[in-house]
Amino acid sequence: MGRPLSSGSWGRLAFAGAARTAVADWRFEALPEADEGDSLLARGWGRSYGDVCINSGASHLDTTRLDRFIAFDAQTGILRCEAGLTLAQILEVVVPRGWFVPVLPGTRFVTLGGAIGNDVHGKNHRHAGSFGCHVRSLTLLRSDGERYRCDSEHNAELFAATIGGLGLTGLVLDAEIQLLAIDSAHVECEDLLFSSVADFARLYEESSDWTYTVSWIDCSARGGSVGRGIFSRARHAAGGDRDPGNSAPRLAVPFTPPVSLVNRFTVDVFNRAYYTAGRRRGGVRREHFQRFFFPLDGIDGMNRIYGRNGFYQYQCVVPFGGGVAAVEELLRRIAASGEASFLAVLKAFGERASPGLLSFPRPGWTLALDFPNRGAKTLQLLASFDAVVRDAGGAVYPAKDARMPADMFAGGYPQLERFRPQVDPAFSSAFWRRVQA
Amino acid sequence: MTVKTIIAFGATSAICVALLRRYAAAGASLYLVARDESRLAACAADLAARGATVTGTSAYDFNDAHRHSAALDDAAAALGRIDLVVVAHGSLPEQADCERDDALVRACMEDNLTSAAVIMHAAARRLEAQGSGTLAVISSVAGDRGRKSNYTYGAAKAGLDAIAQGMQGRFAGSAVRVVNIKPGMVASPMTAHMEQGPLFAHPEDIAPRMQRAIERGSRVVYVPGFWRYIMWVIRLLPTAVLARLPI
Q1: Which residues of B are catalytic?
Q2: Which of A414, A419, B30, B225 is 20 to 30 A from B201 (CA-CA)?
Q3: CATH 3.40.50.720, applies to B5-244
């Protein structure tokens, strides 16, 4: 089983740590007293990649012990629970009773509070929207000592600010979510090869009757092969067991190598092998949902492979209006840079509106990339991506960000000024201070 | 033996919660006892949502010695037969504070020994009358040897150790089992003020081993298991050597 990261974040970049960590044990207790000049930031399992979960020099509020269910109605699939429960812990309880978390990110080791605060998305955005679309209500504890029950009718503005609000509106104590009914713990899935981004877009259009779609892009492909990849689609299977399959990782990265194992050469070899393997996997097959949704959760300490300097993730969304040109341009820039992105993932966000003022998902193509941290060289490349995304009218995802400039954030989040008054004056984060600069 | 009905004292403690969650997932019936009413209600709702049937709860001051047998009677009425009694409450004061504050020494003894001793005796009568059942008590590796870093707490836990041993003798040859669970350092609210080194275990990681020991009726189980070897060495250390160690 995974464990919370007690400091730092998933990208393992060097951020100054918190000065103090207080533990939130019980949902009916008060917030810790903050000293003059101190600020608070709720922190769960530390799975965001950059600094949205870090409050350098100030206080963290560890929420991992707020891990209690409050009420679960197995008839309606309405679940109310504390915000420190992880999606893994929720799945373990609800899957055997025929329910599923309606939106799942690429790891199950994120807390409910984190899923709300980052308004996370999954492979089913076209049909289900973002995580926030399934939050019926939540309870927010603010530094004025009040508990605010928020939903689309009560404290609606605070509700909209808290979904995707990066933990800045207060401490989410609990939330009520609508689960998705399933018949089995298995999915039917299929992998299809594509040779270009346009080809990917065509497969996506053709796959509207599949619940989940995602694709892996071979970023080391050159010349005419740029944009090739594997398109995966899946839907919940009928029949079969409902074993949640929440097993311990089979593999582990036992230590952090001094240099990144992810480099031009290894990515090239891996990508060729992976693409070739994808060619052989024909037809529709059945898989346990854990394998389809969380392939990387099977390797403990996966984030160590990038070496001691950590890595940057870059996830952007560009509106459908400009076609796939911006995605192609980003891939060309990677190819020209000589940098290696190991896990390049291309998805689409559908038309269903995200409920949060700062929600990242909006209609368009979304590309996620990762790069071992090689200092200025990597930062330059990411800045050049910003230019492409800005021109296309897109945005960068805060949950994965560690470096976007303030104007990039402001440009991508037009509701920022509406959000600002909802921020709790006692809450802050390294990310928030960075993008205010 | 499969456990279907449980009364837990100290049901809101992190270790007890982790253990009860495993039984909840298996659909056990529970009667929960703790000191704090709000915490107890939160834990009861959690266990119910996870699949347990919570037949009753009782919140009271554990120093009220007469309340314990009443809770056992209540639980027996609600559960029918009691398969398992868990005694899991306790508190961990700083040794340095005990050295200054006599009231704290007394509170440590009451929290960790006096109330637990009363519960164990009352539970033993109940299980004896039933003719079977398991009494599991959470003591501590701290009771294995008096050490300068936590001997007040250690003395209370050593008391539980002696009671468990005595009861194992008393019930030898019967179907009543007494299981003495000795956790090492466990990351929980009780130890939140301590520096969490590599020896710290998480409640959910030790719960499977506790459950196995309960179901087998083991007399003593260290959780995690490596503490058995650590404590074996510590018990063998000559007093003069132990006195020089910073433990």
Answers
A1: 153
A2: B30
A3: yes
Mean per-residue pLDDT over chain A, rounded: 93
Question: Measured between alpha carbons, how far is A361 from A353 in angstroms, rounded to an integer?
Answer: 8
Fold annotation for A186-403:
Alpha-Beta Plaits (3.30.70)
The dihedral through the CA atoms of A176, A180, A183, A185 has a sign that is: negative
| ipTM exceeds 0.90, yes or no | yes
Q: How far is CA B195 from the centre of its chain?
A: 23
Q: Is B137 helix (H, G, I), strand (E, B) or coil?
A: strand
**How far apart, in Å, are the Cα atoms of B98 and each of A286, B62, B139, B233?**
61, 20, 19, 27
What average pLDDT does the segment A369-382 reach?
94
What's the whole-model pTM score?
0.95
For position A1, what pLDDT does the model report?
59
For an interface test with A, which of B17, B21, B37 has the most A Cβ atoms less than 10 Å from its Cβ?
B21
* Contact of A359 with A164, CB cutoff 8 Å: yes
Binding-face residues of A in 38-97 toward B, CB within 8 A = 65, 68-72, 79, 81, 93
The one-letter amino acid code at A301 reads G
Q: How far apart are CA A128 and CA A126, in angstroms?
A: 6
Question: pLDDT tens digit string along A260-276?
Answer: 888 878 888 888 888 88
